[in-house]
């Protein structure tokens, strides 16, 4: 029982730290979640991270919260999921609550505007790192690249919105996986 409580506290503190020191949302948190849960604590494997991202993207809600919930559940069941979710959400909740009271006073200051530009650049770097990490772990299939590129080009030519691009890419991924499975079966 004491060991389980220690693990629950570790889950809460790990995700509290991830939630407190990561800017840019869920995709920026993925490399940190991977490092903490796989490399540092050994709670899950690298393969599990890919599954977590896929599940977290396909379920409603922020990807970081969904990922934390999934990892917590994997490690300590419902209570672990609750601790991980509270840990990852609590810092943002507290910071946003505090900022809401003072932001109106400072939003017109140039130094604050420049700080947000810098934060955006850092977030972009974290997202690109997460994408690169996931790309390295995924099986390579030239057909899926061609279909996804064609979807983006078609969307750009037709000047469509982002939602249609996502739908086209999802359809392209489904088509590519279907083609790969059929080739593997024959």
UniProtKB/TrEMBL annotation:
The membrane topology noted for this protein in its Swiss-Prot or TrEMBL record is: Multi-pass membrane protein
* Transmembrane portions of the chain: 12-33, 78-102, 114-135, 147-176
Primary localisation category = membrane
Q: Which InterPro entries match?
A: CHR_Transporter, Chromate_transpt
Localization terms from the record: Cell membrane
A Pfam family annotated for this chain is: Chromate_transp
Q: Which family does it belong to?
A: Belongs to the chromate ion transporter (CHR) (TC 2.A.51) family.
Q: What is this protein called?
A: Chromate transporter
Q: Which organism is it from?
A: Enterocloster hominis
